[in-house]
Amino acid sequence: MGKWISLFMAAVLVLSLGCSIKKMETDMTVAGLRCEYLENPLGIDQTSPRLSWILTSSGRGQKQTAYRVLVASSAENLAQDIGDLWDTGKVASDRSSQIVYNGKELVSRMRCYWKVYAWDRNGTMTAFSTPGFWSMGFLSGADWKGEWIGRKAVGPESAGTGQNQETPPGPPPPFFRKEFTLQKPVSSALAYVTARGVFELYVNGKRVGADIFAPEWTDYRKRIQYRTYDITSLVAQGGNAVGAVLGDGWYSGYLAWTKKRGHYGLQNSLLCQLEVEYQDGSTEIIVTDNTWRSSEGPILHSDILMGETFDARKEIPGWDAPGFDDTLWQPVILEEKPEARLLAQMSQPVQVTEHLAPVAVTEPQKGVYVFDLRQNIAGRVRLKVKGERGTKVTLRFAERLNPDGTIYTTNLRAAKCTDQYILKGGEEEIFEPRFTFHGFQYVELTGFPGVPGADAVTGCVLHSTTPPVGKFECSNQMVNRLWRNITWGQRGNFISIPTDCPQRDERLGWMGDAQIFVRTATFNMDVAAFFTKWMVDVEDAQSAEGAFADISPRFEALADHEAAPGWGDAGIIVPWTVYLVYGDTRIIEKHYGAMERWMDFLLNANPELVRRNKLGNNYGDWLSIGADTPKDLLATAYWAYDSRLMSKMAAAVGRGEDARKYERLFEDIRAAFQKNFVSPEGRVQGETQTDYLLALYMDLLPEGLRAKAAEYLVEDIRKKDWHLSTGFIGVRHLNPILTLMGYPDVAYRLLNNDTFPSWLYPIKNGATTIWERWDGWTAEKGFQDPGMNSFNHYSLGSIGEWLYRFVAGIDLDPEVPGYKRIVIHPYPGGGLEYARAEYSSIHGKIASGWSRSGDSLELDITVPVNTSATVYVPADPEAFITESGKPAEKAEGVKLLRREHGYAVFEVGSGMYSFKSTQAK
Ligand code: BGC
After folding, report:
1. Residue 849's closest CA among 830, 865, 862?
2. Which of 654, 587, 580 is CA-nearest to residue 820?
3. Which has the higher per-residue pLDDT, 3 or 590?
4. Alpha carbon distance, N-terminus to C-terminus of the chain
5. Could you read off the pLDDT of 143-182 as tens digits, one per residue?
6. 411: CA distance to ligand 1 center in Å?
7. Are 283 and 270 in contact (CB under 8 A)?
8. Which of 172, 338, 340, 159 lies closest to 258, judged by CA?
9. Which of 26, 317, 398, 713 has the CA that lies 20 to 30 A from 901?
């Protein structure tokens, strides 16, 4: 955050220290202020933003009984408790999230400084929170004063529109610049920027922010995001310069396997507006217009799938600083305004989050050097090189090696993933490409001058900077590796949108993968803002007829990809999950119309209540292992599930009549499902594992047949020598359903397997991410079909949810969503000595960890302030249970509810608890 905000924080602290000390009579504190799930966001365009905060306390049973939110138009006002924009007064409420701003109308550019007081369970007021901040972006198109500027393409038009032709590169990314004079001392400056294409902004020789691929991927025909940056510390009275570079990105670059550029347009353009406020209160704005100049620069071409070529001999020193002579640059051309709406990007930007040093360098062929990062990542490398002018170093990327130690690139399909750097000569040179990324563990260098040291290459991991919120650990190192692989799979694929894979010519927002993985994703990272943004893409991709697409965002070349069962249904499942995990009802309200249109689309196409029509590409239980789940059955199961979720979501937003309508629809589809697919003995047509999993998870069987169905499921697993056969769809439900249906031992057995097909099998074969296929590579058979063999696909990693919810035991109560009411219910087993997890929910940090020694079991938990938890302590029926050394029933803040099925069930408020019990192994 810029100087601007730190100054304001300091001012608030100094001004308010006096009153804060007086009020410190409770140990409850308020912190972690967020607005629309973001910390101090700049330039939002939500006029009734939602606020949240986190309460902490060292005691037990602490809660908020009231709050007061103050929103002020200046730091000074806030410090004096003047909420001139909004002062809620004391509100008796235990809500600390999803508080909707309801003060003075928020208008473009407004700055909002806010803080919170809370009252604890005794009615004692806390000190004020650390102050928070947000600013409003542009709420109307009229706020944009500039023109869209572009550069006339020089040389042959390289659209590459023909099918199956070689992929010609796009034109060189243009550089733009403009100098301006600021007459007076500056008090603040903001930059509002967007592009058709992807931009990097520079002010006075410095890069603005660290965002990569801004303004990120949306359906640019409908919507283009803009970013807001605080550039106060970069500008000053006197001469200044602003510059920008524009890459192709998703707008005009190659997308998927289409071998075609320009899916949304071929001409990139920039729109930028700098707004400066002088210390005397007057303002100045600098916008893109025909006074800007443009030039080609050192980047010869750059494409997400193909890679980037950089000729350092063409670098233009000083181009982005004042005083540069740009007479040889050309005037810009003015581009048409887009028809799309401009809106603020209100999700965490893509940035580099980690640097990895290689662990080994080999030379499998003369002059061919291969660096191993020991981790498959999405990102790129920083190259360090010194050599003669004109030397060309080529970097290629791969997830695996061939047996001879060279890199294996066949599975990248048409994605060239090749970067080239041409040296300018002289001192050591550093190259890091700007507008491309690759999925890789290995980096091949050729043409390197001399022998590269290990530090010639540094891996730069990039992804949407969704904050990490979860951790899992247990006594089995292979399982820990599995958890890390799941997290790496998420990091490698949450790049602006949830993609299927980061390496080959695909990298699309596949909806099936997203809905299968979304719950796991919420445990690893705070993905509230990420999925809030993506749901807009999902709605934008919906067809006029109401079909959700298979991929979102959508583009013309794949327009026929829609309505596939298990994929389109993400349009219902994702909002539902965001509601469950974050208590977010707005996502339901916002997309309610779209969800209704989807429900109408399904019903219109399938009046018989079996989903047989309009199934699009109908992928079924994609990549199952010799176990084809009947496609009508899978489709109908999802439709029933959608209806149930619609009914619950309707109820959550107060649409009682709809709730009943959709519950009736659920019942009717359920009846049709039973009539068509279920035998009187509870056998489900097809008899695959996924059949039973869907029927059980989606509640499609008569109550009396559920246990039978679970038996058949286990019978099938046993027949396969205790192996799974599920594909992308079934796999998510496997271990959760086995556990809930009374077979946690079978779930653990599947977890611990390391023979094909199983989660640990790829790990035995060197996986550091989740693979698309269990047998992507095996010692016996080598590589799977290169036509479809990604080593970084998160779908099969949907078991992450089970590790958190059932192994460590952190779960939520769907009736009180947002982890306001927590369920701690671990299932110790699988030969594990211990397992523990932590999860920072919207209400604060939850922890659950158990360990065993002999037949005694210890369960340590943390429950955040302002929540309560039902705790299932594993214990023999008669076991004596203690909590922090005291008999559990007598411990502070602990209430025994009942004993059942090998558990003693307690009710607790916030705090840390340590239970000990006996439980035979
Ligand atoms: C993708 C998947 C996707 C599938 C649809 C594949 O090419 O990589 O992850 O869900 O197509 O079946």
Report:
1. 862
2. 580
3. 590
4. 52
5. 999 999 999 875 444 444 444 456 789 999 999 999 999 9
6. 14
7. no
8. 159
9. 713
Where b means 16+ CB within 10 Å and e means fewer, 222-241 reads: bbbbbbbbbbbebbeeeebb
Residue among 794, 786, 825 at smallest CA distance from 809: 825
Instruction: Confirm whether 772 is a catalytic residue.
Output: yes
Candidates 216, 772, 801, 883; catalytic one: 772
CB-based contacts of 130: which residues, under 8 Å, 6+ apart? 9, 31, 33, 115
Q: What is the pTM of this model?
A: 0.96
* Secondary structure percentages of the chain, helix, strand, coil, to 5: 25, 30, 45
Q: Which of 473, 506, 838, 883 is catalytic?
A: 506
Phi/psi of residue 916, nearest 5 degrees: -125, 135
Q: Which tens digits make up the pLDDT trace of 611-641?
A: 999 999 999 999 999 999 999 999 999 999 9
Three-state DSSP state, 871: strand
256 backbone φψ class: left, alpha, beta (φ>0; ψ -120 to 50): left
Residue 921's pLDDT is 57
Tell me which residue of 68, 99, 52, 38 sits closest to 864, measured CA to CA: 52
How many Å is the Cα radius of gyration of the chain?
A: 29
| Mean pLDDT value of segment 321-343 | 98
Q: Which two tokens stand for residue 791?
A: 């080593």
Question: Ligand 1, closest atom to CA 500?
Answer: 9
Q: What angle do CA 82, 85, 87 make, to 5 degrees?
A: 60
All residues at 6 or more sequence positions from 762 whose CB lies less than 8 Å from its CB, including other chains: 770, 771, 774, 775, 776
Distance of CA 792 from the midpoint of ligand 1 (Å): 12
Q: Which amino acid is at 492?
A: G
